[in-house]
Amino acid sequence: QVQLVESGGGLVQAGDSLRLSCAASGRTSARAAMGWFRQAPGKEREIVASISWSGGSTYYADSVKGRFTISRDNAKNTVYLQMNSLKPEDTAVYYCAAGPRQTGGKWSADYWGQGTQVTVSS
User: CB–CB of 33/100 below 8 Å?
Assistant: First the structure.
């Protein structure tokens, strides 16, 4: 089992920045990729970004490319999502995930955090 705890969400204005953190505990010895997902009201959960164990491979949704950066510190068992130039459409609950993968065009993950709210006002 892996426990994931997100932090860093909040209410910001358009154009501002936020950094989300995800602390992992439990069976963190597995060399797992990590990711961030988000779910806006009335919409399905969607992938935002993912990062390999080494950090050498990353993936970003088109909607956040050039604005968001995912990173990880394996010594601290922590994954980050730096979000710059935030837009109102970035408003959502952001979830940290362990073991994200895409199968048949659909994303899933092995473990999920409880989520942290990000609200961007215009």
Answer: yes
